[in-house]
Amino acid sequence: MVRLTIDLIAKSRNHFKKKRGLSFPEYLKTLTHLHFSSKNIEDIGDLSMCRNLTVLYLYDNQITHICNLGFASNLTHLYMQNNNITHIDNLSNLQKLSKLYLGGNRIAVVEGLEQLGELKELHLENQRLAPGEKLLFDPRTLVSVAESLCVLNINNNNIDDIRDMAVLKELQHFSAADNKLNNMEELEDVFSHWPQLLDMNLSGNPVCKRTKYRDCLITVCKSLEVLDGREINELTRQFLINWKASKEAKKKINKKHMLPRPLIPYHITNDFNTSLSPHSGHIYDPANMQRWKAQHSLRARTLQMPTSGRLGHVPVPAAICSGVDA
Predict the structure, then answer these.
(1) Rounded to an integer, what distance in angstroms lies between the CA atom of residue 51 and that of residue 54?
(2) Which Pfam families is this protein grouped with (predicted)?
(3) pLDDT bucket at 309, cuts 50 / 70 / 90
(4) Once rounded to an integer, what is the mean pLDDT over residues 133-155?
(5) Contact call for residues 60 and 37 (beta carbons, < 8 A)
(6) Distance from first CA to last CA of the chain, Å, rounded?
(7) Which residue, 96, 135, 290, 320, shows the most beta carbons closer than 10 Å to its own?
């Protein structure tokens, strides 16, 4: 097993030979960059003498755990992509860490970043997950980096939901290509919380096949300059924004016209000289309704009676003349 230790650094021609004239302990104190990529390293030993270390390159190795880095309080860049790491831990002392590269590992849950308040870039693409597994995010970690994170790369991780990421309001570059994002409404809601977003890549997701996919995202992400590798023309954006506003205004007008009209009260009249049917102007009363029905029936019978004496003379019952029910 290859282990990264002080002795391994001493044997490296790429390091100590560049600092001739210094003792080895003095050299370790001045060391700011440590390059040990592609060395079949499986473990990190005691490197506490490298107290001024700021950049550590350990990509393309066989490391399974992040450990023994608590001494590196000045570390700003950590490159550990393409290893065999399964958990993100032991990073709480790296409070100056700005860029963290962990792509190509075996991480299933993104966690353990609660103390990294200066983290600006997080790269987690291409995790080698078990079949059916997807990359998940601990909400506490998302909240802890929400004020600082500007770059997030989660390509190819079977992700189908990013609603919890809405808190990352400082994001400027977001890459989630080759995942399983499919809900346009959810994406629009999340992206509306990212006012700083400049560059986004969602290519290879099912949502890209939706009608007006590109147009919708351009209108939601008003600061976006590049979408799926294609630049956004400002004239095109303004046209789409105006078109969307016009469409929404028409919807409001149509909705207003489709509102149900108020019902007209059904009033009853006992004025028999003007009409045989109810009309407005009279207050409904059950007694009036009965009176109207009786008068309507009586008049109908009277009009059918035979004439007597002179032509066209129709006798009118006294009940109608007196205004009382027959």
Answers:
(1) 9
(2) LRR_8 (PF13855)
(3) very low
(4) 97
(5) yes
(6) 116
(7) 135
Q: What are phi and psi of 303, to 5 degrees?
A: -65, -20
Residue 272's pLDDT is what? 42
Hey, where are the domains in the chain? 2-246, 264-326
- For residues 154 and 185, what is the distance between their CA atoms, to the nearest angstrom? 20
Residue pair 3/41 in contact by the 8 Å Cβ criterion: yes
- Please give the Cα distance from 176 to 160 (Å, whole number): 10
Tokens of 319: 């009940």
Here the tokens at position 132 are 């059916």
Domain 2-246, CATH number (from 3.80.10.10, 3.90.1150.10, 3.40.50.1440, 3.30.450.20): 3.80.10.10
Residues whose CB falls within 8 Å of the CB of residue 234, separated by 6 or more in sequence, listed in order? none
pLDDT one-digit tens code per residue, 236-273: 777 767 766 666 666 666 666 666 666 655 554 444 44
Residue with tokens 């390091």: 15
What H or E segment, with its residue span, contains residue 153? strand 151-153
> By C-alpha distance, which of 86, 104, 15 is closest to 56?
15
* 208 neighbors 183 (Cβ within 8 angstroms): no
State the angle between helix axes of 234-257 and 213-220 in degrees (0 to 180), rounded to the nearest 10: 90
Alpha helices in 84-208 (DSSP H): 139-144, 184-191
Count the alpha carbons within 13 Å of 49 in the hemisphere toward its beta carbon: 15
Place of tokens 């021609």: 13
DSSP 275: -
Residue positions counted in the chain: 326
In this prediction, residues 110-115 reach a mean pLDDT of 95
